[in-house]
Amino acid sequence: MEQNQGLPEEQDQPPFEEAIRQLEQVVKDLESGDKTLDEALALYEEGKKLSAMCDRYLQQAELKLKQWDDEAAEAVDAYAEDTPF
Fold this sequence. Notes:
- By secondary structure, the protein is mainly alpha-helical.
- Helices cover 74% and strands 0% of the residues.
- It has one domain.
- It has two helices and no strands.
């Protein structure tokens, strides 16, 4: 199975599910409260990057769904025009 189907320009990025898992771990690590300030800042920065990556995946998925909906609507319209009622 091809990794990174949603972000072909970023082949080194993890798939969406892995990015979410990593983001959840970052949140748990930050919530634990046992990190130094530098560690917490590094985790926060990593979390921001992961969050942005997940947002891009979701935006691209939403775009695909909209395109599919538009294509389906066009097919229905074309069918309706060809069907005498």
